[in-house]
Design a protein that fits this description.
262 residues, mainly alpha
Amino acid sequence: MASNMAFVNNSQTEHSASTSGLIPNFHNSEESAFSEFYDEVKAIEKRDSVLTSKQQIDRLTRPGATYFNLNPYDVLQIDPDVPLSDVKKKYRQMSILVHPDKNPDDADRAQKSFEAVNKAYKTLENEEGLKRCKEVVEEAKIRTDEMIKQKKKQLKKEGKTQEVPEDNIDKYKHAIYVQTCKLFADLERLRQEREAKDMHDRKRKAEDDALEEERKEMEKEWQKNFEESRTGRVDSWRTWNKKAKKTSKGNLKPPKLKAEKR
């Protein structure tokens, strides 16, 4: 499965520190709270099987929505295995329900909801985006199966019955959903980190370029001043040289010749 989720092996982000307050980083101690929240949300969605505009807007802007809305399947309320034709159909239905023009009394939240729906659809209609999303779901299944395997292994080691909550199909799907949301959050966290790094690199390069440009300008200015003062320096040298020669001629006397004795 190395080709499925290379980013997971590289990132090691399942329990990494969060780089954004908008993207929660769930640890084991928070799993129960997350499960309770998930069960509550799903209970509401089941009760409201035909959601109205207000209910959809509430769902897409609820506390934690920034995290859940990273999962396009959760935004559009579709199964990962549905064909693209069903994705389009659901997108049209939801985009009409939450469109700001249809909700003038709640335009701001409607706009946020509409953007979430639009982003989810664009991700799934794009071939590369759809491929990535399917890889995320597949990796979530692999992680869930491994988690169940480890749980049963521990129960066997303790001499207990090898039964886990995930043996129930609904609990199993829920566990996959949790893992899926985590992986989408990990992808977003990596994207933010890369974006921050790229921004830092661009800023650093711009600063280096500015310093280099300043250095070149200073060197150019120095060279210009040097050339402009060349004539003055040469004339000054010639004047001093003439004075020195004149002084030498006026002060020096030739030695007296003595007659040779025989």
